[in-house]
Amino acid sequence: MRRIAASLMLLVLLGAAGLPARESLRLPWVFSDDPDLSADLGFSPGPGGLTHVELALGGRFAHFGLPHGAGRAPRLDIRCSFTDPSTLERDARVLDTQVDLGQVLEEYRLPFSPRRFGADSPLLYKAELATDLRPGDYNLGLTLKDVGLSIECHRTLHVIVPAIDAGQWQVDDLKFVTAVGQRLDERGHAQRVLDPNPWRQVGGRLGWDLLVAYSDRGPRPGGALTRSHRVRRLRTGEVVWQEQGPAPKKTAAQVWLVRVPAAELKRWKGGVYVLEAELDAGGRRTLTSKTFEVLP
């Protein structure tokens, strides 16, 4: 099983003045086998000392590998299992979801046709899963299956779930998204929706803005709150974009957004870049960063 991850390293730096910085190196994974699939992980404080783990999955119709003679779009049963290597396999935390690519086509207002899965197809499919885990090492298994179309594949990777100090003020994990919206929950209350960008890619033919959502957590120091954003190229360290100013007010349920228009991205060379988000409250600062890829 081949895996390509070198161009998509994720570096998160979380710290505050007067406290030791916490560094956690994580990898988003791009699997080269069919069906096309990318997996990106996000971590935040969970209940009772656990870590909340969010898994965003994304694939491209163009690299799906539709079986020859298929008369319908795949209906993918997706299973995700987190297994502590020191425990028995039966003790794995298992999450299930389904993605019907026929419904995805309906959302695009397109009928099924094998050509929708051709090499030039711009269509995408996504799925999101979440759970709370004890910090530590896990083997993550991902299975995609459509029995009717004889599709079945299994991918595995190693994941380190970090321990997160909820009592320390810090910038939350950066979430690369393609859009932000709202929907009503079961009680009729507005709930924000972040459409994930599991590839953490922008530029090229995608036509997407660089759009990132984040918040802060822990006891915020007093004083005026300002924020600054910087994008630098990973190889050279060159800063290609930055902004700074007072942080807009928000509730705990809201997020701040970083947006770089697609027109600006066209000026950047293809390659891997780092987005840094920093908050300053009364002279105390906290920073986090995350890599992403600009397509040529």
What does this structure look like?
With 296 residues, the protein is mainly β. It has two domains: 1-19 and 168-296, Sandwich (Immunoglobulin-like), CATH 2.60.40; 27-164, Immunoglobulin-like, CATH 2.60.40. Helix content is 4%, strand content 53%. The strands form six sheets. It has a five-stranded antiparallel β-sheet with strand order 1-4-5-6-9, with no helix packed on it. β13 (175-184) and β14 form a beta hairpin. Mean pLDDT is 85; it is low at 1-27.
Write the layout of secondary structure elements.
Blueprint: E1 3-4, E2 10-14, E3 22-26, E4 29-31, E5 37-45, E6 51-60, E7 75-83, E8 93-100, H1 101-107, E9 124-133, E10 136-146, E11 151-161, E12 170-171, E13 175-184, E14 190-196, E15 201-203, E16 210-214, E17 216-217, E18 225-233, E19 239-246, E20 256-260, H2 262-265, E21 271-281, E22 284-295
Parallel strand pairs: 15-22
Antiparallel strand pairs: 1-4, 2-3, 4-5, 5-6, 6-9, 7-8, 7-10, 10-11, 12-17, 13-14, 13-16, 16-20, 18-19, 18-21, 21-22
List its salient traits:
five-stranded antiparallel β-sheet; 2 domains; mainly beta; Immunoglobulin-like; 296 residues; disordered N terminus; 2 helices; five-stranded mixed β-sheet; globular
* Main sheet summary: 5 strands, antiparallel
Oligomer: single chain
Q: Average the pLDDT over all residues and give the rounded result.
A: 85
Order of helices and strands: EEEEEEEEHEEEEEEEEEEEEHEE
Question: What's the total number of strands?
Answer: 22
What portion of residues belong to β-strands? over 45%
Task: Kindly report the spatial arrangement of strands forming the biggest sheet.
Answer: 1-4-5-6-9
